[in-house]
């Protein structure tokens, strides 16, 4: 956690906000048995404006929605936020079969008796946790309706047949939502109105190079830059409509570099991470052209790393 505070200071995030969040984390205790739920992030989120908006919203007690294309760091930011606030986190991945019971909880038999088995939203609400509602727009509206009273000013959970419980003061929900993803739907207005919504921007070159340096410190300066530029080339082609957004997969680029570390030739690794995910041969050709313009055909992994 201290490491993250240091990172925020170093990035030049508003000193007032950093101080406030540090004070928050220091003065809001977490039960011993929940301490292992406080995330320890592997990656830092880069983007000062977004950091400041997100910190301000959460300090104001708001719930946050992070909306944007895939690989814009939504999950990285959500995890970083729980960590810097020092709160236990519950990751709740949404899918079409999600129902109210899997969020709130349901009755189960235990030792011959019916008892209530709390779901993740209930646990989070009870313990002042950060609930990460991941890809919330994958779920059906009926399932999401149970969240309305949790997320708005009422801050209560109604469990049919049980007492209502109120949502602990430290509880926050951070939803993520992907655009243009098969299977996603527009979020209904009733739900969207319960969040402060941040549109997550794509990475800029400078941050992208820092991210690559963070994750692959042994990349040479030259290829750190070339891989960043390659990603930005693909990004530009997506914006112009020459490539579909499936081609724009930062995770795929990072995977490819990991494969290079294991000795897979550079172009082959990029095929595995990026090109092969596209099933249109014309588009595959376009992607290979973009790659070829940046990286020689026979480039060996040993030339890319120091
Ligand atoms: N602004 C950013 N700061 C740090 N990492 C980022 C950023 N944008 C994208 N990433 C990287 O992209 C990858 C995917 O991030 P993730 O949070 O899973 O994306 P999303 O949830 O938006 O699809 C991760 O490896 C992450 O480090
Ligand atoms: Mg995600």
TrEMBL record:
One Pfam entry name? AAA_5
Signal peptide limits: none
List the Gene Ontology MF annotations in alphabetical order: ATP binding; ATP hydrolysis activity
Q: Entry's InterPro entries?
A: ATPase_dyneun-rel_AAA (IPR011704), CbbQ/NirQ/NorQ/GpvN (IPR050764), P-loop_NTPase (IPR027417)
Where does the record place the ATPase dynein-related AAA domain?
Answer: 63-195
Which PANTHER family does this one have? MAGNESIUM-CHELATASE SUBUNIT CHLD (PTHR42759:SF1), MOXR FAMILY PROTEIN (PTHR42759)
Name the UniProt record assigns to this protein: MoxR family ATPase
Q: What is the organism of origin for this protein?
A: Roseburia porci
